[in-house]
Design a protein that fits this description.
Length: 161
């Protein structure tokens, strides 16, 4: 075998083996909404495609996707937030009827390892509340209100800075 081809094959395999990987899939309640975080590792600058779906009653229900066509009822109640190494799904007005297995599927353009898939079983009564730092990131209006009220609190000598 030609040494140049051997090196090219080895480099391709090494690159494909380390391009992307879903590190963690977690779910929590954010008020009345379900939040599913799909954290991944990506070592390329290639575009990301994703699909969030739910498996219930022996049927796959696509919620949000760039890979296929989502179901209108679920898409209308959901939102996707993309950031570095995180795809976050919010399903608004989450009820027990929305319980099931939630699936995160990621594909990086040019990644030869195929789609990365992880799933998590979501039961409303067993979900934890989202952590405080998550709430701060998702909704900062209370912080703004606090900062705006500091001068008023200082005026009545409630707070001395």
């Amino acid at each position: 075998m030609n040494p140049t081809i051997s090196i090219a094959v080895i480099l391709t395999v090494l690159q494909a083996a380390h391009c992307q990987k879903i590190k963690e899939l977690s779910a929590c309640l954010l008020g009345q909404n379900l939040r599913v975080d799909c954290r991944y590792e990506n070592k390329t600058a290639n575009p990301l495609t994703y699909e969030f779906s739910m498996f219930k009653d022996n049927r796959k229900h696509v919620i949000q996707t760039t890979l296929s066509v989502p179901e209108n009822t679920l898409k209308a109640r959901s939102n996707i937030t993309l950031s570095k190494d995180l795809v976050c799904l919010q399903l608004f007005d989450f009820t027990t009827a929305d319980e099931g297995t939630y699936i995160c599927e990621l594909k990086i353009t040019g990644d030869y390892t195929g789609n990365q898939i992880k799933n998590i079983t979501v039961i409303k009564d067993k979900l934890e509340k989202c952590a405080g730092i998550s709430l701060l990131i998702q909704n900062t209006s209370w912080l703004l209100l606090l900062l705006l009220s500091l001068p008023l609190l200082q005026a009545v000598d409630f707070v001395s800075l």
